[in-house]
Amino acid sequence: LGDKGTDYITVPYMGFLYAVPMTWLSTSLFQAIVQQFYKLSLSVPPRGMGQICDWLIEGTPGLALHLSSPAESITRSGAGYTVHSSGQAYEVDAMVLAPEPGVSADLLQDLVSGAVTAKLRGCRYSEYAHVQVCYEKNPWPNSAVSLALPANQNAGWGAAVLQSHRHPHAVPEGGEAVGVYFYTRPLAHMTDEDITLAAVNAVTEAYGPAPEPRFVQVFHYKRGLSIAGPGHYATMNSLHTELPDGIFLAGYYFAHAGVEAAIFSGELAANRLARESVWKVPGVVPGLKIRRG
Ligand SMILES: Cc1cc2nc3c(=O)[nH]c(=O)nc-3n(C[C@H](O)[C@H](O)[C@H](O)COP(=O)(O)OP(=O)(O)OC[C@H]3O[C@@H](n4cnc5c(N)ncnc54)[C@H](O)[C@@H]3O)c2cc1C
């Protein structure tokens, strides 16, 4: 893309989305993202991110939902499996496992080869920090800008988003919250106090002067986002053929960071399960599709 394209497209967008240097990322990820840049938008359902779970539940008739009951182990049981959770044993013909890859590795370790668990445990995660800088009275009620991305590689932060623009119901009437996202590399040398100060400075740099915020909330994760390094997708794709019959994996680490990618990956796994299990069910027509809710 040349220097200008790198500074104005690659650095701000990829920094905003992944927070890590390009050399840490798979080339095919960049190629896929660069072709989609023109579609990029930040949208949140009217009742917040949790509403996506509500939609999935509403779109799944006959669902038996067990919350706060982690799967503790999975054992073989005839042609199927038993899932052990919170003192209960659930007999299943097939399953989609969608926790973090390391958890899937632990749950599958007696059922799959060491090569499979090594691939799952080898998924890299980046350190990530996100800060909400919150004002009781909106200092910029007429801001024409919703999202600021620093078009240079010197800033420690990668994006500052006005929440009243992104999701009006997320802030009280007349208030404002600015979400500031940090690049991974500078975090290695920053305390949470440094991150707080840098976030408040980023907000005024991006949107102009403001009084002291009412409060600042730091979310700092040592394992923040799964990062698809070079070779990641080939390794992940190879997993699908190495799993025992009836076990399917899902999670955004198969695709890229984001809730849409997580849902898409779950849908793919559910369709694989339906396709590969369907011949076992008498009278069911092969080619069954899970309908989008
Ligand atoms: C700070 C931050 C900001 C982000 N902002 C955005 C954003 O603005 N927009 C966006 O689209 N994405 C955002 N993301 C990325 C998004 O959160 C992830 O891509 C998405 O949540 C991944 O979904 P997932 O279902 O693959 O995994 P997860 O959300 O990690 O879900 C895995 C689930 O498995 C459960 N689990 C673990 N162990 C077990 C077990 N033994 N049994 C049963 N369940 C288990 C966990 O409790 C968890 O609920 C952000 C991420 C971070 C960290």
TrEMBL record:
It comes from the Bacteria. It holds the Pfam family Amino_oxidase. Residues 30-273 form the Amine oxidase domain. This is Amine oxidase domain-containing protein. GO terms for molecular function: oxidoreductase activity. It comes from Candidatus Frankia alpina.
